[in-house]
Amino acid sequence: MLFGEFELFSLSDGFFALDGGAMFGVVPRVFWQKSNPPDERNRISLALRPLLVRTRQALVLMETGVGDKQDAKFQEIYKVKHTSSLLESLARAGFKPEDITHVVNSHLHFDHCGGNTRFEPQTSADSTQTGRQGSENQPPVTSHQSPVAVPTFPNAKYYVQAREWEMATHPDKRSKASYLPENFMPVFEAGQLVQVQGDTEIVPGVSVVYTGGHTGGHQSLTVRSQGKTAIYWGDLIPTVSHINVPYVMGYDTMPLQTMDQKEKLLKQALAENWLMFFEHDPEVCCGYLSEENGRYSVRSQKSE
Questions:
Q1: Which tens digits make up the pLDDT trace of 37-51?
Q2: CATH homologous superfamily of domain 2-121+142-300?
């Protein structure tokens, strides 16, 4: 869609699933199961929706989905379904990985940065000589294919909060399973990682907003152009159901901070008519906030 002088592209890396109880924390299942029906293993379907922002100077990609580096066991546990991959979605929008100038991760959990990197085959050769060099007894050279993770977007800088980087590289026991080094260490090793502190403008009109809450270093993204504002919530408000302030994920490391940030930013979104993007909602990509009798709801926005 056109948004002021910018273009916004809602992309897709398919779907995955997480435990419904974990996604809604202390909220009883009876309250969330109608809007988010669980499967036989209590998992609810979640979308993977990166956002591409095209400005006059840059192509900014917010989030990279879960990626395709996982083994079959991982894909079965998390019910990964690549109905569309990020790169396929990007190609349909008319862009190549080399075109991306900036990548922003809300945080470094695997479902938000899995597409930061991709596996590239690496060939190594080895031979063990048991005979004289050049003799007919010399065994053949054997090639081994061992994949190595490399940045998916070779010309981009990747932006993450410095506090999030510290958490990802020194995770506690509770968070360790969500931080997979192959998703972010190759970016650091390639010299493409940029650590920011707090609210930061990435390019004119596109900024990260430090929120904390879900993780200590979580950030959302705002886009401002010609008097309009859009916000990409990340995991601060992952689905439309989480618009309710007390609906906080069990995964959040600081749930009270999540609630405080939601309350503050939702009031601003309502007052200033922000367009809101939901990363994980299986049906609603984006919409505008309404309030009636003290309760929030979302008016779905398909295009503009």
A1: 999 999 999 999 999
A2: Ribonuclease Z/Hydroxyacylglutathione hydrolase-like (3.60.15.10)
